[in-house]
Amino acid sequence: MKKLSPAFTLIEVMIVVAIIGLLSVLGFMSWRNQIAKSQDALRKKDLQRISIAFEDYFNDNAYYPNGDIIANCGGDELAPYLGTIPCDPVYSTPYCYLASGDLRSYRLLTTLGNLDDPSIADLGCSSSEFCGWEEECNAVVDTRSGYNFGFASLNIPLADPTLPAPSPTPTPTATPDPGNYACQSYVCNNYFPDDPIVDRGCPISFSNEVECEAYCPTASAEMQCP
To answer: Are 69 and 78 in contact (CB under 8 A)?
Structure first.
């Protein structure tokens, strides 16, 4: 007589389905987090490029550009200092540029999707109060609130000085996996086939380009490649 193979019970099937569902949710959350970090890296690089253009403009004119200079993102209003004015990679809207009345100082802001990014607190901003310029930025960009990252001219802080000080961000203990990516002039470079640490004397390197892109714009001077 042929022996029948035991079948799965309903409970066993439900357990398997639940495990698959849980793994799918965890995988989706991890994927979304990586996408947010990648978008934030683009935002940081965009603001860094605009900030450099502003400083070059100041060196030539002794004042910063007018407050509406980057309102037409995708335009060439900053040429020759910047060929094309970048837009937010998700919303395709301009970044927030707040120039002082005498054009002797400025703040340049955006919204990072990753609220756990340590650079938010390092700039004096927070995940709840942000940088304190939401009303001014929404009047300029008119899309959303919550501007929590940016650059400012050297003579003023980015965050509103009247904001309560954010809680300090714990220093991460994990170290990046060494690789071919490293920071130079606050921009992530790929040094392949060279080893950035061994061949170029860089203090830190990354195997993941996204992590490198997110780290470099706010890295201290001593963590940059020579």
So the answer is: yes
Per-residue confidence (pLDDT) for residue 171, from 0 to 100: 47
Domain 33-152 sits in CATH at 3.30.700
Query: Does the pLDDT of residue 221 top 90, yes or no?
Result: no
Q: What is the DSSP letter of 170?
A: P
- The CA radius of gyration of the chain, in Å to the nearest whole number, is 23
d(CA 126, CA 166): 6
Determine the average pLDDT of the residues in 28-56: 85
pLDDT at res. 214: 85
Where do the CATH 3.30.700 domains begin and end in the chain?
33-152
Q: Which residues contact 124 (CB under 8 A, 6 or more apart)?
A: 131, 157, 158, 159, 163, 165, 166
- The total number of residues shown for the chain amounts to 226
